[in-house]
Amino acid sequence: MESSYTAPFAQAYNQRWTGFVTLVGPKLRTLYEQVCSRGERSVLDVCCGTGQLALHFLQAGYVVTGLDNSEPMLAHARINCASFVSSGEMSFVQADAADFSLSSRFGFAVSTFDALNHLSGIDTLLSCFSCVHQCLLLGGLFAFDLNTVMGLRRWNNVTVEDAPDAMVINRGMYDEDKRQGRIKISGFVRQELGNWLRFDETFVENAWPVREVTTALLEVGFSAVYQARAADLTVPLADPESEPRVFFVARV
């Protein structure tokens, strides 16, 4: 099952944790437009969160469907993309990333900010890949990032952010035997009227060897897979296991 976040955390996320998708959005669009230049401008955003990545593609003239299991996240996404929802260029679906079916077909599927690390195991990840593959047009592309084992090992710490508009405490632990990270995020964020919103969220991320993930993608029907850094998604990595985070790029 994909994580389903609470309303307070969704609001805090919408205020504090959208920088990554804003950064990688242009990189993903450049990748797609270089690799798939035939003009198909439809995107499926899996685990779309509060909609910032979808908004990037919408503003570039794409039609987007966002899928997420958290209704509180989707509520913010609908507000963030309101004008495109009204025009019919944006639609949202509440569904589990490992168990969904859509009638539309897309040229590009994306999932960002290690969302798929939240899936419970390699079988669940494979189910997600199968669902995505069935939604893509022939020649379509699927790009997503995962924390690697190295990346999750860095979770063994406590960090505190003390800012004028927020106080955030991250408590992370990594289980080497399970290749699993657990993190509790708690704190307060200042609201527009000056009051403070309290949130607490605990979630688990799983890491899999790059080879296992690649095998799962090929098993469900993707024809070619490589790994890359976010900085340049067109350049395959020689040693992806040495990276804390990698993007997988898979083609139908």
Automatic annotation (TrEMBL):
Pfam families documented for this protein: Methyltransf_25
SUPFAM superfamilies named in the record: S-adenosyl-L-methionine-dependent methyltransferases
Key word Ubl conjugation present: no
Gene3D superfamilies in the cross-refs: S-adenosyl-L-methionine-dependent methyltransferases, Vaccinia Virus protein VP39
Record-level Gene Ontology MF annotations: methyltransferase activity
Keywords annotated in UniProt: Methyltransferase, S-adenosyl-L-methionine, Transferase
GO biological process, one term: methylation
Residue intervals of the Methyltransferase domain: 43-136
InterPro entries: Methyltransf_25, SAM-dependent_MTases_sf
Source organism superkingdom: Bacteria
UniProt name for this protein: Class I SAM-dependent methyltransferase
Organism: Candidatus Cryosericum terrychapinii
Taxonomic placement: Bacteria, Pseudomonadati, Caldisericota/Cryosericota group, Candidatus Cryosericota, Candidatus Cryosericia
